[in-house]
Amino acid sequence: MTIKALLFDKDGTLFHFKATWEAWTHKVLLRLTNGDVDWATRIGHDVGFDMEAQEFAPDSVVIAGTPAEIVIALQKHVDMPSGELERILNDEAETAPQVEAVALVPLLNHLRERGLALGVATNDAERPARQHLQSAKVSDLFDFISGYDSGNGVKPDASPCLAFAHHIDVPAMHVGMVGDSLHDLKAGRAAGMKTIGVLTGVATRDELHPFADVVLADIGEIPAWLDQLV
User: Do the bridges between strand 214-216 and strand 194-198 make them parallel or antiparallel, or are there none, so unpaired?
Assistant: First the structure.
């Protein structure tokens, strides 16, 4: 099967998940509680985040949920309008530390030189997603960037994947969906794409394997995998 395009998840795929979002969650919870660690710890427990260890539970809403879904979880504990709370989440996300899973500029340039169209579909908001990609100096290397609020739907629904395929005019069967979570891989499978799991997020190889055509250590292994398909 010829791969003509790759659609990437962002967090846990292009960037290491824990390095970014554990720091973000810790900072957000302290901001929302005015530095009350006990209160922040109670909220963290409810959303699947250990404040002391700064680690996520595998089923945490922060891992694959949209900002809107995280807001719903937080509003059980914080008396704040949803719009204001979501603004805080997105503001903090824009400045969250980003650690590239691999050196992105040379990898993405190499993939483009191979003739591949590239896209990003994230359940993060589009504004911070674009900021993260711009900070890494790779936003111009993508033909398509979609967040949960871009009007293309959210993973694990197939709609963001199909929107990318339509945008670049490539049949979904010739697109590889690359992600670190079951949401990513289920979306790709539902769209009829090849699915490529990576281990730079929270999910394990065993968790990803049933929904992936291949599980790689990170996106840096994609060129070698593509060579095997020829």
Answer: parallel
Structure tokens at 14: 């292009």
C-alpha to C-alpha distance for 110 and 102, rounded to whole angstroms: 13
Total residues found in the chain within this entry: 230
Interval 16-42: pLDDT, tens:
988 888 988 999 999 999 999 999 999
**What values do phi and psi take at 6, rounded to 5?**
-130, 130
